[in-house]
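I need you to check the entry underneath: sequence plus C-alpha cells. Let me know what the C-alpha cell row says about the fold.

>
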Amino acid sequence: MPRLWLINQFANTPDLPGHTRQYEVAAGLVGLGWGVGVFASDFNLTQRRYRRLRFPSLFACERPAGIRWTWLWVSPYRQNNWKRQLNMLSFCLHLVLRLLPAALLGQMRGRAPNVILASSPQLPAAFTCLWIARLSGLPFVLEVRDLWPQVLIDQGGKTPDSLMVRLLGWMERQLYSNAHTVVVLAQGAERYVRERGARRTTWLPNGPDLELFAPQPLPPDQPTFTVLYAGAHGDANALENVVSAARLLEQRNSPVRFQFIGDGPEKQALIQLAVGLKTVVFNDPLPKAEIPACMAQADAILLSLRDVPLFRYGVSPNKLYDAYAIGRPVITTVAGSINAEVETHRLGVTEEPGDPQALADAILRLAQTPRAEREAMAERATQLAHSTYSRQRINAEYNRLLHEVIA
C-alpha cells in the first residue's frame, strides 16, 4: 500500500466550517488504495477556537473515512497581528518535532511515507515540509492554493521590498524549484509558478464532491428570489458591495432577499452596514456537510471578491463549483477568468467588482429571467461540474500523479 503524508494547517473535516479539500482528496485516495495521514491545526481558522484539543493535550488522532488524521496544537490568535505569525510558526515547530523523527525512523523501519504533499497558503509550513522531505530522502509535491506572497502585495498593501515579502518570496522560489511537481488550483497560476522556478506543473482545481452536491431542482417559484452567499466574511470578499446592492434593491421594492452564511473579521461591520434592511439575513457558519441543503433552498449563489490583480487569474473558488454541481445560476463579481467562464458557458450573471448599482441591476435581471432559462443555466453548470471540476475526477488525477512521483 503506498503511503502519503498530506499537510495543510487549515484543513478541516466535513463536520467543521471551512474548506475540506484535503479531507476529500485524502478520502478519495484511501478509496484508491492509499494509506493517508493528514496533519492539520486544531485551531479552526473560521471560528478562531480549538475544536478537539483541551489543555495540556498537544495532539489528537482520529480516523474519518479511513484517514489517519492528526490534529496539532498551535498558539491562538484573534486578529491578523503578530499572534497570527506566532500561530503559523508554532505549527511549523510541531511539524518538525513530530514529522522529522517519524520520517527518519520510518525510513529505517520501512514505514515512512512514499511521498509528502504540502498544501499552501501557509508557506513556512510548506517550506518546513520540503526540508523534512529532503532530510529524509522523500519526494515532495507542493499544492498551491493561494499565491503567497503576491496576495500580500496585491491585497495586503505590502511592498515587494518589505522583509516579510522578501523572505516569503525566497521560500516560494525554493519550494517551486525543489518540488517534484507543483499542483495549482487556478489554471492561470501555472505561468506564475513556472516563471518563479517550477519545473513541472499540473492543474487540479477545487471542485465539488458529486455525491454530496448532487443536482437539485430549482425551488418552486415564490414571491421572493433568494440569493445565498456562503463563505468567508473578510476584506477580500468585498461584501459591503453586496450589502449596498441589497439596499438599492430594497429601495426599489424588488423581490430579492439575501442570506449570508459564514464568519470572518468583517462580519460585525457588515451587520452594522445592513441595519434597517429587511431583505438581508446573517447566519452563523455551517459544517460543509450542511451546505448543500442550504444551497438547494436558494434561487442563485453569489460569489464576490475585491478587484485585486491576483484574483483575475489566481483563484479557484470552491463555493462556485459547489453551486455548479447542485445546479444553481450564479452571480459573480470576480473580474478576469471567473467572470469569463460564467459568461462563456452562460451560467448566470456577472458584473465588475465595486459597483453596487450594476450588481443590483444584474441580480434583478436574473430574478426576472424566465424559469426555463434559469433551469438551462443550472443544467449547463451541472455539466461543467461533471466534466471539469468534479472531486472524483480530481482524485483520480491525483492518484495518477502521485504514482508517477513514486515511480
